[in-house]
Write a structure and sequence with these properties.
Elements: H1 6-13, E1 27-34, E2 44-60, E3 65-79, H2 87-90, E4 103-111, E5 116-122, E6 125-126, E7 130-134, E8 137-146, E9 151-161, E10 168-171, E11 180-185, E12 192-194
Parallel strand pairs: 1-10, 2-11, 10-12
Antiparallel strand pairs: 1-4, 2-3, 3-9, 4-8, 5-6, 5-9, 7-8
Length: about 200
Protein backbone atom coordinates (compact mmCIF):
# COMPACT_ATOMS: atom_id res chain seq x y z
CA UNK A 1 0.00 0.00 0.00
CA UNK A 2 1.30 3.46 -0.93
CA UNK A 3 -0.06 6.99 -0.45
CA UNK A 4 0.81 10.21 -2.28
CA UNK A 5 0.47 12.29 0.91
CA UNK A 6 3.80 12.22 2.74
CA UNK A 7 2.27 12.14 6.22
CA UNK A 8 0.01 9.20 5.33
CA UNK A 9 2.90 7.38 3.65
CA UNK A 10 5.07 7.75 6.78
CA UNK A 11 2.31 6.09 8.81
CA UNK A 12 1.83 3.35 6.24
CA UNK A 13 5.54 2.49 6.31
CA UNK A 14 5.14 1.57 9.98
CA UNK A 15 2.17 -0.70 9.25
CA UNK A 16 1.97 -4.33 8.20
CA UNK A 17 0.16 -3.33 5.01
CA UNK A 18 3.05 -1.34 3.54
CA UNK A 19 4.99 -4.38 2.37
CA UNK A 20 8.22 -2.43 2.86
CA UNK A 21 11.41 -4.45 2.48
CA UNK A 22 14.40 -3.16 4.38
CA UNK A 23 17.27 -5.02 6.01
CA UNK A 24 20.96 -4.52 6.70
CA UNK A 25 21.50 -7.85 8.46
CA UNK A 26 19.88 -11.28 8.78
CA UNK A 27 16.33 -11.17 7.47
CA UNK A 28 13.49 -13.58 6.68
CA UNK A 29 10.09 -13.17 5.10
CA UNK A 30 7.86 -15.75 3.45
CA UNK A 31 5.37 -14.59 0.81
CA UNK A 32 2.76 -16.80 -0.84
CA UNK A 33 0.52 -15.82 -3.76
CA UNK A 34 -2.44 -17.88 -4.97
CA UNK A 35 -1.65 -18.34 -8.66
CA UNK A 36 -4.61 -20.65 -9.21
CA UNK A 37 -7.16 -17.86 -8.92
CA UNK A 38 -9.08 -19.78 -6.26
CA UNK A 39 -9.94 -18.64 -2.74
CA UNK A 40 -8.10 -21.50 -1.06
CA UNK A 41 -5.33 -19.33 0.34
CA UNK A 42 -7.79 -18.46 3.15
CA UNK A 43 -7.35 -22.04 4.41
CA UNK A 44 -3.56 -22.11 4.15
CA UNK A 45 -1.67 -22.51 7.42
CA UNK A 46 2.06 -21.70 7.43
CA UNK A 47 4.82 -22.81 9.78
CA UNK A 48 8.22 -21.16 9.41
CA UNK A 49 11.35 -22.46 11.15
CA UNK A 50 14.79 -20.81 11.05
CA UNK A 51 17.73 -22.55 12.70
CA UNK A 52 21.27 -21.21 12.40
CA UNK A 53 24.75 -21.21 13.89
CA UNK A 54 27.67 -18.86 13.27
CA UNK A 55 30.34 -20.21 10.94
CA UNK A 56 32.96 -18.10 12.71
CA UNK A 57 34.27 -17.16 9.27
CA UNK A 58 34.26 -13.71 7.68
CA UNK A 59 33.54 -13.74 3.96
CA UNK A 60 33.81 -10.85 1.49
CA UNK A 61 30.83 -10.91 -0.86
CA UNK A 62 31.28 -7.36 -2.07
CA UNK A 63 30.80 -5.37 1.12
CA UNK A 64 34.05 -6.22 2.89
CA UNK A 65 34.64 -9.20 5.21
CA UNK A 66 31.49 -10.13 7.13
CA UNK A 67 30.82 -12.95 9.57
CA UNK A 68 28.23 -15.42 8.35
CA UNK A 69 25.80 -17.84 9.91
CA UNK A 70 24.77 -21.10 8.30
CA UNK A 71 21.10 -21.79 8.60
CA UNK A 72 18.10 -23.81 7.51
CA UNK A 73 14.78 -22.24 6.58
CA UNK A 74 11.83 -24.65 6.71
CA UNK A 75 8.45 -23.53 5.36
CA UNK A 76 5.51 -25.89 5.89
CA UNK A 77 2.28 -25.19 3.99
CA UNK A 78 -0.85 -27.01 5.14
CA UNK A 79 -4.08 -26.92 3.16
CA UNK A 80 -6.92 -27.04 5.71
CA UNK A 81 -9.76 -26.47 3.26
CA UNK A 82 -12.80 -28.39 4.53
CA UNK A 83 -14.96 -30.64 2.41
CA UNK A 84 -18.11 -29.18 0.88
CA UNK A 85 -16.79 -25.77 -0.17
CA UNK A 86 -18.65 -24.09 -3.08
CA UNK A 87 -17.20 -24.15 -6.58
CA UNK A 88 -16.32 -20.44 -6.62
CA UNK A 89 -13.90 -21.07 -3.71
CA UNK A 90 -12.40 -24.25 -5.15
CA UNK A 91 -12.18 -23.43 -8.86
CA UNK A 92 -8.65 -22.96 -10.20
CA UNK A 93 -8.47 -20.82 -13.31
CA UNK A 94 -4.99 -22.11 -14.12
CA UNK A 95 -6.14 -25.77 -14.16
CA UNK A 96 -9.90 -26.44 -14.13
CA UNK A 97 -9.19 -30.20 -13.99
CA UNK A 98 -7.08 -30.01 -10.81
CA UNK A 99 -8.07 -32.16 -7.83
CA UNK A 100 -10.88 -30.60 -5.80
CA UNK A 101 -9.49 -28.39 -3.06
CA UNK A 102 -5.89 -28.41 -4.31
CA UNK A 103 -4.17 -25.04 -3.84
CA UNK A 104 -1.47 -23.65 -6.12
CA UNK A 105 0.90 -21.03 -4.72
CA UNK A 106 3.96 -19.08 -5.80
CA UNK A 107 6.13 -19.29 -2.70
CA UNK A 108 8.92 -16.74 -2.18
CA UNK A 109 11.48 -16.68 0.63
CA UNK A 110 13.23 -13.34 1.20
CA UNK A 111 16.57 -13.34 3.04
CA UNK A 112 19.18 -10.81 4.12
CA UNK A 113 21.58 -8.99 1.77
CA UNK A 114 24.30 -11.19 0.23
CA UNK A 115 22.69 -14.44 1.36
CA UNK A 116 23.99 -17.56 -0.39
CA UNK A 117 21.69 -20.49 -1.19
CA UNK A 118 23.44 -23.84 -0.69
CA UNK A 119 20.57 -26.20 -1.61
CA UNK A 120 16.78 -26.46 -1.70
CA UNK A 121 14.41 -29.37 -1.18
CA UNK A 122 10.66 -29.87 -1.41
CA UNK A 123 9.37 -32.73 0.74
CA UNK A 124 12.97 -33.91 1.11
CA UNK A 125 13.74 -34.04 -2.62
CA UNK A 126 16.14 -31.63 -4.35
CA UNK A 127 14.33 -28.88 -6.22
CA UNK A 128 15.35 -25.93 -8.38
CA UNK A 129 14.19 -22.50 -7.28
CA UNK A 130 14.07 -19.23 -9.17
CA UNK A 131 16.41 -16.65 -7.66
CA UNK A 132 16.42 -12.86 -8.02
CA UNK A 133 17.04 -9.73 -5.96
CA UNK A 134 14.36 -7.29 -4.80
CA UNK A 135 15.27 -4.09 -2.91
CA UNK A 136 18.72 -5.58 -2.32
CA UNK A 137 17.32 -8.77 -0.78
CA UNK A 138 17.83 -12.21 -2.36
CA UNK A 139 14.55 -14.01 -3.11
CA UNK A 140 14.12 -17.74 -3.79
CA UNK A 141 10.80 -18.84 -5.31
CA UNK A 142 8.94 -21.83 -6.74
CA UNK A 143 5.42 -23.08 -7.45
CA UNK A 144 3.89 -25.41 -4.84
CA UNK A 145 0.64 -27.37 -5.12
CA UNK A 146 -0.95 -28.64 -1.91
CA UNK A 147 -3.82 -31.13 -1.91
CA UNK A 148 -6.67 -30.63 0.54
CA UNK A 149 -5.61 -31.98 3.94
CA UNK A 150 -1.94 -32.27 2.94
CA UNK A 151 1.27 -30.49 3.99
CA UNK A 152 4.25 -29.64 1.76
CA UNK A 153 7.64 -28.72 3.20
CA UNK A 154 10.14 -26.43 1.51
CA UNK A 155 13.63 -26.34 3.02
CA UNK A 156 16.45 -23.96 2.11
CA UNK A 157 20.01 -24.37 3.36
CA UNK A 158 21.63 -20.94 3.37
CA UNK A 159 24.43 -18.73 4.63
CA UNK A 160 23.77 -15.09 5.41
CA UNK A 161 25.91 -12.33 6.97
CA UNK A 162 25.30 -11.92 10.71
CA UNK A 163 27.36 -10.56 13.57
CA UNK A 164 26.99 -11.98 17.11
CA UNK A 165 23.69 -11.01 18.80
CA UNK A 166 22.41 -9.24 15.69
CA UNK A 167 18.70 -10.18 15.64
CA UNK A 168 17.11 -11.74 12.60
CA UNK A 169 14.34 -9.45 11.34
CA UNK A 170 11.15 -11.36 10.50
CA UNK A 171 8.60 -9.67 8.26
CA UNK A 172 5.13 -11.18 8.48
CA UNK A 173 3.14 -11.11 5.23
CA UNK A 174 -0.29 -9.60 6.00
CA UNK A 175 -2.57 -12.66 6.08
CA UNK A 176 -5.75 -13.92 7.72
CA UNK A 177 -3.60 -15.67 10.35
CA UNK A 178 0.01 -15.03 11.31
CA UNK A 179 2.70 -17.59 10.66
CA UNK A 180 3.69 -20.07 13.34
CA UNK A 181 7.33 -18.92 13.66
CA UNK A 182 10.26 -20.47 15.49
CA UNK A 183 13.76 -18.97 15.35
CA UNK A 184 16.71 -20.81 16.92
CA UNK A 185 20.07 -19.13 16.53
CA UNK A 186 22.87 -20.66 18.58
CA UNK A 187 24.60 -18.23 20.95
CA UNK A 188 22.19 -15.35 20.29
CA UNK A 189 20.55 -13.57 23.24
CA UNK A 190 18.26 -11.64 20.87
CA UNK A 191 17.50 -14.16 18.11
CA UNK A 192 14.56 -12.47 16.35
CA UNK A 193 12.64 -9.20 16.06
CA UNK A 194 9.43 -8.61 14.15
CA UNK A 195 9.06 -5.66 11.83
CA UNK A 196 5.45 -5.01 12.83
CA UNK A 197 3.72 -5.41 16.16
CA UNK A 198 1.22 -8.26 16.49
CA UNK A 199 -2.39 -7.32 15.82
Amino acid sequence: VWAARADVQRTLLRSRASGALSATGPFLSVVTNDVGGSKLDYYQHRKVRYQAVSTGVAVDLGAGPQLEEEGTVTVSLTNKAPAGLPAYVLFRLDDPDSPSGQSHSWVSVYLGPRTTLLRATLDGRPVEVESYVEKGLPVYSLFVKVDRGATRELQLSIRQPAVPDQPLIYRQQPLVRDDDVQVLRAGSDDPVRYTYAAR
